[in-house]
Write a structure and sequence with these properties.
5-stranded mixed beta sheet, Immunoglobulin-like, elongated, 38 strands, alpha+beta
Length: about 900
């Protein structure tokens, strides 16, 4: 029987690498399916580097920021072989094989002699047949380079510690520092690796304190090299902290899925009891990192490592044991990621390769207690049997139908199919991620992205192709537009039967545009409809739009608000859209938007408000009336959404008050706080709106339930208007609960002081709370101005005058407004700097006094100072136009008189030449 010595070790190590290579390379072009979103993103980044010459070192800023070592490693192959996922996966496979080889050599070097040979081979066998190492070696993920760089850094470090000549020692130590720094350029879990190295160095320095000069010199070389090669990453982190920390903060500061204590518990179980089950793409759900056979070896190795860190005679070995003992703590980045569905095998990669050395130490302890001639057969048997088992497990996992969907293989097949079948037809893709890199990486044609809630019809008489990801089923209402492409022309999913994706043709038809349809320059609303929505539930609002002109905006979207009659916002939805600049003139967009109606919303027909805004530039689109005049940024559609009462009374406990009977069958359950205000004594100004939610219940009535008149007052003698019922009590059903918003505008001349808000209904009197009214300082005499104007906007506001001052390159315009009577609308001031042709060169649009003093708070005969600052005046400035408009309706106030006798909706101001 062959025994293990240095000569047989080499042959066995090659066999280990051969088995590992077979497991990682066999069928690599087929399994795993994909490329997945993250893999495709890596393809696009590597192409940019390899083919376009992009500089993305040390971090590629796209896709949440990705360390770029992996991409630069693959770039030469992209240029020489193929710029796709197969090349990246080959890069991953060989990176993983290098990791195994380095880890085997590291184990042999750390412990030396025959024991080092056993540990090295045991480490190699364990890594070769590890499902998770095999997984990393077959995926196009950059994280595969983290254990490789850590293994090489540690290998060269230990080689330097054992070198007999200082020259060679310094060379190896410098290489170790360089590769250890290289780990920082791999994956976010690498950020703590230098800390573990410092701890090991301290152990080494203490254990070999009789050699402290030598160890300090070696440490200086190693850490100097590490620091030098870490400079680009450190510099980038300081210059771009948002990108450097983006992904890390996402998994720490996002929606917390578990507590930190629970995350610690789950990660403790991850090693050999229950592993990553949050994402099928990363693991067979629940499969632990190590098998039940490796578990006792891991525990034994951990105990030996802890003991050896304190008792080993050789300082280098004590440091080795210390690093191995610390390896379970190297999963700290995954543990603290409480918003990332822990445990995560991927984020725990920082423990590799040292955690496998822990298994190797435990295996050596067990194998040393059997006859030497059986050590090698035991290791080889484990290699072959374990390799066969893990290969079968991986193949079964990789062929699963659910993995096919989660790995985005449906979109990969769709992209390849489009490449051959789309021809010149417009292509629309419905996927949960817009701008999906899997489609972009594999299909060169133009794509319009739909998401899962939209359908776009091409311009009239144009045929397009619509692709739906396998997990998205088109709504039944869309079937009239979609013509299925024969299934026998569509690739199959992994089961060989189910179509990999949905494929349809769609043909545009001329739209019927209502004569008074809400519209802006680019988009016209054709229809808005919704089924009745039960209070406390969500429903689909369907909006149909016609594209009037090619859209120049990247992230244009309709912000939809549901409002009650008092103006309170009941629901808001901001549907996510991207690549809207691909929308073509003549297309029709059908949007299904979810509206969440709050519980206890009274049954009634409600209006919706739609505002089109480009989120990339914060540009709001102005609507136009049929005559071409401005209609403001808000499209108001009355009575679109019908809310019906729920058959089940909501479980609502009002924050304030006690249940009282107001009338026969009408019960006030309580009320809430002042909407939009904090504290027990919220502050208001005269003219501002005060809103309180009242919670009513239809209690059993002796007869027909009568309507109830509810009035309110401030203090003892300031009456407020009666409550308006959108759904009056006479229509209530027994048990029904309604949240009714009572809203009043405070008198503008309300004196400063504290006021109780008192509700009165019949003989009932209730105090809902108290408010504090701040005295609004009002200017009732005209301040000095450089130029008097006297122009009147509408019949409400006059521009009394202005003062234009210059301070270096900065110019300040102070306007003085005069309220002729209390304005009923909050107007926006526009200050436009125009050239002689009337083109706007610069502008300011704002509520007066930097949004702090709306016009609907002004009192009659009040003067208001309003300041606007410009960094510089354009050289071709001809005039400054000043006007007022209602942002909601877009309506401008006309001016009289004007200098030229023509009616305008602005007043022009000439700037003195000496101030230019």
């Amino acid at each position: 029987m062959m025994t293990l010595d240095r000569h047989t070790y080499i042959g066995c190590a090659l066999l280990v690498l051969l088995v590992a290579a077979c497991l990682r390379l066999y069928g690599l072009g087929t399994y795993p399916p994909g490329p997945h979103y993250d893999e495709a993103a890596n393809i696009l980044i590597t192409r940019s580097i390899a083919l376009d010459g992009a500089n993305m070192f040390p971090i590629a800023p796209s896709y949440q920021g990705r360390e770029s070592l992996y991409f630069y490693m693959a770039a030469p192959l992209f240029r020489a072989v193929q710029a796709g996922d197969f090349t990246l996966r080959v890069t991953s496979a060989f990176s993983n094989l290098i990791t195994i080889a380095a880890a085997m050599t590291l184990g042999r070097l750390m412990f030396g002699g025959r024991r080092g040979l056993v540990i090295g081979l045991a480490v190699g066998v364990s890594m070769a047949i590890s499902f998770h190492m095999m997984f990393m070696g077959r995926q196009a993920y950059r994280a595969v380079t983290l254990p490789m760089m850590q293994a090489l850094g540690l290998l060269f470090l230990w080689r330097g510690l054992y070198a007999r000549r200082m020259t060679f020692s310094a060379l190896w130590l410098a290489l170790g520092g360089a590769f250890s720094a290289g780990a920082l350029y791999t994956y976010m879990s690498s950020r703590l690796f230098p800390l573990w190295l410092v701890l090991a160095a301290l152990v080494l320095l203490w254990a070999d304190r009789h050699l402290w000069r030598l160890r300090l010199a070696q440490g200086a070389v190693f850490f100097a090299a590490l620091a030098l090669f870490a400079v680009p990453m450190a510099s980038y982190a300081l210059d771009n902290p948002d990108i450097f920390l983006q992904r890390l903060t996402e998994v720490q500061d996002g929606e917390v899925t578990v507590t930190l204590a629970e995350s610690v518990r789950r990660h403790a179980l991850m090693f050999f009891i229950e592993g990553d089950y949050g994402n099928l793409r990363y693991n067979i759900p629940g499969r632990p990192y190590f098998t039940w056979i490796e578990a006792p070896l891991l525990l034994i190795g951990g105990w030996l490592a802890v003991r050896g860190a304190f008792t080993a005679r050789d300082g280098r070995r004590r440091a080795a044991y210390a690093l191995i003992a610390l390896s379970p703590l190297m999963i700290a980045p995954s543990v603290v990621a409480v918003a990332g569905f822990p445990p995560s095998h991927m984020r725990s990669l920082g423990m590799v390769p040292l955690i496998f050395l822990m298994v190797g130490v435990g295996a050596a302890f067990v194998l040393e207690r059997i006859k030497p001639r059986w050590i090698l057969p035991a290791l080889l048997a484990g290699l072959l049997i374990g390799g066969g088992a893990v290969g079968w497990q991986y193949a079964h996992w990789a062929r699963g139908a659910e993995l096919f969907r989660q790995a985005d293989a449906d979109l990969a097949e769709a992209a390849r199919w489009l490449d051959e079948n789309a021809a010149d037809r417009p292509v629309y893709v419905a996927a949960f991620h817009r701008q999906h890199p899997t489609i972009i990486a594999l299909y060169d044609g133009a794509v319009t992205w739909l998401g899962a809630d939209s359908l776009i019809l091409p311009p009239p008489d144009v045929e397009g192709v619509v692709i739906f990801a396998q997990a998205i089923t088109p709504p039944a209402a869309w079937r009239d537009y979609l013509q299925p492409i024969p299934a026998d022309t569509i690739p199959s999913a992994s089961d060989g039967v189910t179509p990999a994706f949905g494929a349809y043709t769609v043909r545009g038809t001329p739209p019927e545009i209502p004569p008074s349809a809400p519209s802006n320059r680019y988009i016209t609303l054709l229809s808005a409809s919704a089924p009745a929505i039960t209070a406390g539930e969500s429903g689909a609002l369907t909006l149909v739009w016609h594209i009037n002109a090619d859209v120049p905006f990247y992230s244009l979207r309709p912000v939809v608000r549901l409002r009650d009659p008092s103006g309170v916002e009941l629901a808001l939805t901001d549907p996510f859209l991207l690549d809207t600049q691909t929308w073509r003139a003549g297309e029709t967009i059908i949007q299904n938007i979810r509206l969440d109606v709050p519980s206890a919303t009274p049954p009634a027909d409600y209006a919706i408000e739609i505002t089109w805004v480009d989120r990339a530039t914060d540009t709001f689109l102005n609507s136009v009336n049929p005559d071409g005049t401005s209609a403001g940024i808000v499209m108001t559609l009355p009575d679109v959404v019908r809310v019906v009462a729920s058959d089940i009374a909501p479980n609502i406990r009002p924050p304030r008050g006690e249940m009282v009977t107001v009338a026969d069958g009408v019960t006030l359950l309580g009320w809430g706080g002042f909407v939009g205000r904090d504290g027990d004594m919220p502050q208001y100004r005269g003219g501002e709106r005060l809103t309180v939610p009242l919670y009513w219940q239809a209690s059993p009535a002796s007869g027909e339930r009568a309507d109830v008149t509810v009035t309110a007052r401030l203090g003892d003698d300031i009456p407020l208007p009666a409550l308006t019922w959108a759904h009056p009590p006479a229509r209530w059903r027994d048990g029904e609960i309604n949240r009714v918003y009572a809203s009043w505008s405070l008198p503008r001349d309300l004196a400063a002081g504290d006021y109780a808000l008192v509700l009165e209904a019949g003989t009932l009197t209730l105090t809902l709370g108290s408010i504090r009214v701040d005295g609004q300082p009002r200017l009732l005499t005209p301040p000095p101005v450089a130029e008097r104007v006297g122009a009147v906007y509408g019949d409400e506001i006059a521009l009394y005058g202005y003062t234009w001052t210059q301070n270096g390159d900065s110019f300040t315009l102070e306007l003085v407004w005069h309220a002729l009577r209390p304005p009923q609308t909050s107007y926006t001031v526009f200050v436009h700097l125009v050239d002689s042709a009337g083109q706007i060169l610069d502008q300011r649009d704002a509520i007066p006094q930097n949004y702090d003093y709306p016009t609907d708070l002004w009192e009659s005969d009040e003067y208001v100072r309003d300041v606007y600052v410009f960094d510089r005046l354009p050289d071709d400035l001809d005039a400054v136009l000043i006007g007022l408009y209602d942002q909601l309706t877009g309506g401008r106030l006309y001016v009289s008189p004007t200098p030229d006798g023509i009616i305008h909706d602005y007043i022009p101001i000439k700037i003195p030449m000496r101030e230019r």
